[in-house]
Design a protein that fits this description.
The structure is a homodimer of 357-residue chains.
Chain A lengths: L1 E8 L3 H19 L3 E5 L4 H7 L5 H8 L3 E6 L14 H12 L4 E7 L12 H5 L3 E7 L11 E3 L6 E9 H16 L4 E6 L5 H14 L6 E6 H10 L6 E4 L1 H15 L6 E5 L5 E5 L16 H13 L4 H16 L17 H11 L1
Parallel strand pairs in A: 1-2, 1-3, 3-12, 5-10, 8-9, 8-10
Antiparallel strand pairs in A: 4-5, 4-11, 6-7, 11-12
Helix pairs in contact in A: 1-10, 1-11, 1-12, 6-7, 8-9, 10-11, 11-12
Bound molecules: 3-isopropylmalic acid (IPM) (2 copies).
Chain lengths: 357, 357
């Protein structure tokens, strides 16, 4: 019996989470494993109920679990709060740090049946692309010390520190090279070594780690050039290895390029089997509660959880296959609706995947 | 008599610069002003001739000038140098700092006749876009102190500091709001205020400055979301105000989205009339010396120089008009060649603009 902390959060989170659980229930029966769910508040709803975005009780539920299935957090209701208390930051950053979830996998690929939704020119989309962004998630400028603010008048200033340790770069680089081995054996490391001292260091260490993976082709690219090349020819990339901030930027750009934002899952791992699994998109407050949100990213996040945290590779593949099949049958939510086919609801999509499974 | 420091640099720099000078010569006659050019080495060629990317003699030539017309620097020959000595960094960063060129304008727009080269889907391109990225160019993490490296073994670490002063943010925000007033009166400030202390500060001050421009609509966007929105719907943006690093990233993405990289000029200003004007693209060593490079970005940079540093608005417009006309006549270099029309050479393009002028 594996324990799952279910943190549905705000906006469309609870709706899409219900569909992921529905699919996981079918998978349990078909593949003969057992999950125990423990729901806990996170984000805005946790602020409302407990006065903080990540209550101790939620942290305890996560600590007792084998994995965290995360929905999404935030919405207009909490936008007036000071930055440090806003649901996204106050929930996600401490969760990542507390569980040492240093390795964030963000796949961005074009789903064949959805290619028409891709914002790129047809001949570029035609070549297809399937990118894995590997983002360092617990260091860099997000967590670097010191940060602060002081002085007054024109001279008042505020600062953050981008800092990396050798051990931090080494471990994320190993994760990325290993992922590349399971894929097309191409790794592109994103940095700004032409300007930043921390990024000269990054590049050096990635080069060192590469010696253990002579079968993987390594390239280095500057972040500014990376944002250009992604647009011009995403097909050229396999694994993109990035620090925390650059990974945030690059993974979002890559996700949008697929045109399938509602389809993209992500995994945040601690290097062992524990992880947090969440959709790439946000809480989409504008469509929350309307039963129109696309639950596929949440369902595919559940599949990643089966793969990385629960050792249920077969079930993970079956869910991914069921999603492909449903798409091929032109069953679509509103965001990805096919011309001439009426969209299904959030629940309708969950049902369709459950049946296909 | 205005003095221009002409820093052609490496790669295609000298070729495209020759065409810009050709066009400037015609403009002088037609509009009755006089320029004196002073050529100086910069970048790789300066390393070869003088042992440094920005020799004192070059700096002196710039100091004596009313504006700097810059080509491009760097190439494979100098790639083995330590990061701090590479031509791009060792030439551009000190030039920006020395002349306090804190305000970088990077326009990114689709040239109608070239819309087919845009990497976005036809319906997105169809809406058109015309963005001005205003990038802070002399502060932020590029120049912040301390930066360094220390320790050894797994604990060895390296860091950079992202720091902004109130005065630095205020002056770039004023430049951006004033630019928005000359355009469509929409300003979007790009930050990461949900995570970074320096960017909370940035957002606060931009909001303060906005009070002086009630006629300009202000929005804030996170950098990760900005990279997505640029791809999904670039039409929504007018002026994008960014810090140094985010501006580097965003302006390159926006430039590539236009599909007209060889067409984009940029201006780096000191808030008075002095400035450095350069193409957005690089030194393109692969096509250097072949008389095929597109000189239009360099020619349009010369137009920006006339506008911002020399007060020759009429001449600037005339050059921009001549470029539009040449494009409309299907006169194209290889990079933007129209189907069924043989491309012209670098010189051929310069001649065509000169004639149109
Ligand atoms: C909400 C925010 C703190 C977060 C980040 O920047 O890491 C988000 O953008 C993400 O990418 O998961
Ligand atoms: C060459 C490099 C230092 C420079 C920068 O990052 O500013 C370049 O990318 C640019 O945008 O002008």
């Amino acid at each position: 019996m594996k324990k799952i902390a279910v943190l549905a959060g705000d906006g469309i989170g609870p709706e899409v989470m219900a569909e992921a659980i529905k699919v996981l229930d079918v998978a349990q029966k078909r593949f003969g494993f057992a999950l125990e769910y423990r729901q806990a508040d996170v984000g805005g709803i946790a602020i409302d109920h407990h006065g903080e975005a990540l209550p101790k009780s939620t942290l305890a539920a996560c600590e007792a679990a084998d994995a965290i299935l995360f929905g999404s957090v935030g919405g207009p209701k909490w936008e007036g709060l000071p930055p440090a208390q806003q649901p996204e930051r106050a929930a996600l950053l401490p969760l990542r740090k507390h569980f040492d979830l240093f390795c964030n996998f963000r796949p961005a690929r074009v789903f064949e049946p959805l290619a028409a939704a891709c914002p790129l020119r047809a001949d570029i989309v035609g070549r297809g692309f399937d990118i894995l962004v590997v983002r360092e998630l617990t260091s860099g400028i997000y967590f670097g010390q010191p940060k602060g603010r002081e002085g007054s008048g024109a001279d008042e200033r505020a600062w953050d520190t981008k800092v990396y340790r050798r051990s931090e770069i080494e471990r994320i680089a190993h994760m990325a090279f290993q992922a590349a081995r399971r894929r097309r054996r191409k790794l592109t490391s994103v940095d700004k070594a032409n300007v930043l001292t921390s990024m000269v260091f990054w590049r050096e260490i990635v080069r060192d780690v590469a010696r253990s993976y002579p079968d993987v082709e390594l390239n280095h690219i500057y972040i500014d050039n990376a944002t250009m090349q992604l647009v011009r020819d995403p097909h050229q990339f396999d694994v993109l290895l990035c620090g925390n901030m650059f990974g945030d930027i690059i993974s979002d750009e890559a996700a949008m390029l697929t045109g399938s934002m509602g389809m993209l899952a992500s995994a945040s791992l601690n290097g062992g089997s524990f992880g947090l699994f969440e959709p790439a998109g946000g809480s989409a407050p504008d469509i929350a509660g309307k039963n129109v949100a696309n639950p596929l990213a949440q369902i595919l996040s559940a599949a990643l959880m089966l793969r990385y945290s629960l050792g249920e590779e077969e079930a993970a593949r079956a869910i991914e296959g069921a999603v492909e099949q449903v798409l091929a049958n032109n069953i679509r939510t509103r965001d990805i609706a096919a011309a001439g086919h009426a969209p299904v609801s959030t629940q309708g999509m969950g049902d369709a995947v459950a049946v296909a499974l």
